[in-house]
Amino acid sequence: MWLVSYRALYRVWRPQTFSDLVGQEHVTQTLKNALAEGHFSHAYLFSGPRGTGKTSAAKIMAKAVNCANGPAPEPCNECDACRKITEGSLLDVVEIDAASNRGVDEIRDLRDKVKYAPSEVRYKVYIVDEVHMLTAEAFNALLKTLEEPPGHVIFILATTEPHKLPSTIISRCQRFSFRRIGLSHIVARLEHIVQSQGIQAEKSALVSIARAAEGGMRDALSLMDQVLAFGGDQVNDAAVLAVTGSVSRQALVDMLESVSGGDAAGILDQVDQQLAEGMEPERLVQDLIHACRDLLLIRAAPELEEVQNRLAEDPSWQELARQFSPEQLNGVLDTLIQAQQQMKWAAHPRVLLEMVLVRVCRERGSSSEESITGKTVDHDLVKQLQQQVRRLEKQVEELSRRRPAPAEQDAPSRPHASVEVPARGESGTPTRKMVAGMPVQASELAAQSDPARLKTVQQHWPELLAKVKERKITVHAWLIDGDPVAATEEGVLVAFKNTIHRETTEKEANKQLIQQVMEETWGSPNRLVTIMRADWEHLQTAAETSVAISGSGDRNTADAASHSAETDPVQKAVELFGEELVEITD
Amino acid sequence: MSFDAIPGQTKVTEFLKQGIRQRRTAHAYCFAGPRGVGRYRTALELAKALNCDAAREDACDRCRNCIRIENGNHPDVWIIEPDGQSIKIDQVRGLQRAFHYTTSENTTRVMIIQQAETMTVQAANSLLKFLEEPITPMVAVLITEHVHSLLPTVLSRCQVLRFAPLAADWIAQKLEGEGFNTAEAWVAAHIAPGLDEAREIASIDGFALLCERVIQWSGEIVSGKSDALLSVQTKWIHKELDKERLELVLDLMLLWLRDLLNQKLKRTVPPVFLKWEDSCRRQAPRWSTSRLLHGMETVIDARRQLAGPVQPQAVLEFMVLAMQGGATNVQSRRRSF
Questions:
Q1: Is the pTM of this model over 0.80?
Q2: Which domain of life, per UniProt (chain B) (predicted)?
């Protein structure tokens, strides 16, 4: 039969002297000095996050004041008193679990016993752990005793949540705040333990453990235990990754590369693969956050010690860091951190993860268009400008070929329209006027229609509608009636079912707005040409033999037409509620 | 039963076995993972293996101890479950009192706390000292769905073992073997983390119809017509679906949107809604990617609100409005006078 005789590392390696208590020099130094000079207080309060050494410090303190060779700055750990305290068998050092004994009765009991002198050692030490769980009455019952205890008594209160303590308690104690333990301290301590246990360990593996522990020594040792149980007496990267469930550095590099390339499908495939290997979505997000932080450090503070030590050797990280600007990294981090919060409670963390990654990829894509800093961005902008110039040149050429007269006649109220264009960085005004002047434009456009282009246009159409809606909701309401049926690089032909919709869309202001949005969406100026659906069908049957136009788009829109006919909301409302109840006010 | 009979959790069970082999079993574990993936079963197996007369790394299932644990009447295996809504401090105190007495030789006490996240603050805190330095040989197993809602101080005293959701194809295969329709089994396997729950979902009357309705509804939502709002009433609320069923509807919606997203990104993974692949291809062009993402977020929000004390109809209607272009954008058709 098995016995659990194994003691967890964090119990075996509980610090026994102040110098063992790493990362808390501000506390230990003060205590040591107080002990050396012999004036210590009768009440201490140790507060700080989990696993930083509060209870350990309390026990060391109890030993130091009672040590047969003391009171000295450090306990000897050899005398009778020290050994008995370590074992927990000395009656004069009382460790109280305040969370289980939290009532006023327990405290009264304690108060009654306080007055008896210690039996074996110099001081009676009461260690009250988890003191924040005492009830309000219990705290108040403790006040008088805490303020003026008999000379042979020392109280040490320990808690993770000092804010829950009444201020009257805090003001009666000397307070020591324990800090989270720094990465290097944890690593050093782990190395020490590993060496004295005779275990093989890789340095990078210990760093990963220390990282995952987030400043708690107990967490670090728990993890270490787990790693040892997993991999035998071997501490290596693979075992640590398996226990903490982290993603390998290489996988992270691959994923971030996809992000920098804006490759949403690629990153989702990688996630699929990671999850199939048993990775957890939450862990993945956390690792990505850490990775982005590293990249940010490389970018923003390359001379930092941490960067020099840990990240400088890895060329792939340096390379990756160059692909992002600090602002972009900030954006990615924001999104990821927000997702991490949401993920804690989500029913489908995996879907959430996928969403976030797609969003990050897209943000990365769009931000490069918007911001004006960074190399890649400039490149895009230049390309865009080149396109625009080429288009303008073509327009000028066209204009000069045709007689300029009709254009001027067409718009006598705004003679400087063509001058306005380059100045505002927008286009479309002159082209549109040309179009308006020529009714044949629609058939021309239909004839030149490029099926591939049409497909992209159709794909981006909902996006365009949404953008229009943001600008002006009424224009959206008119435009939604139409469907793109033909498209070239320069223009889009939209077919409408209703005359009124078409006519309103054709209005100067509306059309201009739509063309502006088109330009933003596709990055190049586009004409909007409209046509009635009936005309379009007519045109299509006429041109069927000569022009091959993407049929699928047509079928799609026809579908939509029949769909909308059968689901007119007014009709449906009448059906459901009866004619008398329905009032149409539009 | 033994460790090997727990499906899909070899990582965890191998780890525990290794721990027993090397005598490195910790005194406190936290089993974290979704429902129905075998967390409780694993805890029981651990208790058996630790107390088995055969003294191997796995339970023999024949000795007295194994049988007693299996049947739930071993005196040294304690199981704590929420008393009503939460685990109270008195339950933990009772346990500590019981564990104060020494036990018969060679026994490892095991305490299993179900739904550990429901422990009250007092109960969790009173467990701290006890977990850190147990008096008798014992192993504590905290079972939880939300590892984040445990106190960090509790968590730092445990070794956390994560249980992964079972693989969807494995569940689907099992369900198919039990005679469920392939397409329905596939959807159910994606929604539920464990086999039992997936089976329950797949055996709902008219599950396929439910899927179809969800798809139709999403079509109505994307078209921007007010029918989608009407459907909230006619399709879901009117049918007096209970909360659980509505949650299922939202889960289906979320997975459907995910299918659309995959389609939009031109990924080659098999869709969750296999049978409805055509509808997916038809509906995808009507969504823009940013709208899909926004929609999914809205569904997730709605799913969370549904768990709270809000009228389900209000939640669904709000969701529809938000998906159709932001609830703040919704304008009345009635003109102001």
A1: no
A2: Bacteria
